[in-house]
Amino acid sequence: MTTVVYGEALVDDFLSEQAVGGAPFNVARHLAAFMSPQLAITRIGDDRNGAIVRAEFERFAMSDAGLQFDPIEETGRVVAERNVRGHRFVILPGQAYDYINPEQALGALESVEASAIYFGTLAQRCPRSRDTLYALLDASNATRYLDLNLREGQFDERCVFHSLHAADIVKVNEEELQSLFAWYVDIHPTAPPLDGDEVRAACAVLVQMFGLEALIVTLGHRGSVYFGADGAVIVHRDNPLPPFVIDSVGAGDAFSALFLLGRVRGWALETTLARANEFAGALCAIPGAIPRSLGFYDKWVARWRSG
Predict the structure, then answer these.
(1) Which is the most buried residue in 6, 130, 139, 246, by most CB within 10 A?
(2) In contact, 250 and 291? CB cutoff 8 Å
(3) Which helix (H) or strand (E) holds 32?
């Protein structure tokens, strides 16, 4: 069974160096490192940054069946601008991943037996790629996993609304959950803090409103909470902490990758959530969203080989 990962592959440009990123491509690379079948459907340009992305496909031994090439538009790029507060990231408009071709994407989908389709909101900012996504979702009975990944200035509430209705499982962070509360449960960020029972009730409303199988809320170093359609609430807070934290870039992508991996391999839900939390925490002890050495994965592969 193959996990189909749809959306942006891009290059973070720090002027002095470039790093390949994009939440979907991060998820796909993690799955490939764990030798789990995956299909990354994305689009890049015929340029230097496109060559950098292609090199990552080769480094992780990933199939390029879903990789499209745009003769006009540039490979996705995010410009990192340094200021007194650190880095400000500017997501450029009109990039190749905004124009993912539906015929090519559907052809790639037909070549695999999809167990899940991962998607977010950034690759929906332009009609072309948004329409392609929904064509894929309509063509498959696979589980639909939405990692909301709200990026300032790159989405609107209408996109979020339709994405939630299209999804089976939704993963959000605390800030994104506050946005959902404000839009759909009439609980605004300026309201007094909710107690535990109120949060559970509000999340249950979201699960029911959008017909979800589950809503997962990641809490950074504090773990995660899973809210199931059957009323199940699974809280994971006792997570092994990394010896030190460099940054949290890509931690959410690592969580999603391990959650999807666990479903493919048939892990128990609580085991899947615990491993997703642990792996996401370990990513915080290295710079960037993806390990520079594939040796990083060796201990995890060995630990989880037996199930």
Answers:
(1) 6
(2) no
(3) helix 23-33
Residue 86 has pLDDT above 70, yes or no: no
Tokens of residue 215, six digits: 């809503």
Find all residues with CB under 8 Å of 118, minimum gap 6, and list them.
Answer: 3, 4, 5, 6, 7, 24, 27, 145, 147, 256, 260
pLDDT in tens, 100-149: 999 999 999 999 999 999 999 999 999 999 999 999 999 999 999 999 99
CB atoms within 10 A of CB 26: 24
Nearest Cα neighbor of 113 from 93, 137, 140 is 140
On the question of pLDDT at 82 being above 70, the answer is: no
What pTM value is reported for the model?
A: 0.95
Cα distance between residue 266 and residue 124, in whole Å? 31
Q: Give alpha helix (H) positions in 125-266.
A: 127-139, 157-166, 174-180, 196-209, 251-265
Say how far apart CA 249 and CA 87 lie, in whole Å: 13
Percentage of the residues of the chain whose pLDDT score is greater than 90:
80
CA atoms within 13 A on the CB side of 244: 3
CB atoms within 10 A of CB 153: 9
User: If DSSP codes are grouped into helix, strand and coil, which group holds residue 226?
Assistant: strand
Alpha-carbon span 163 to 49, nearest angstrom:
29
Tell me phi and psi for residue 281, to 5 degrees.
-65, -40
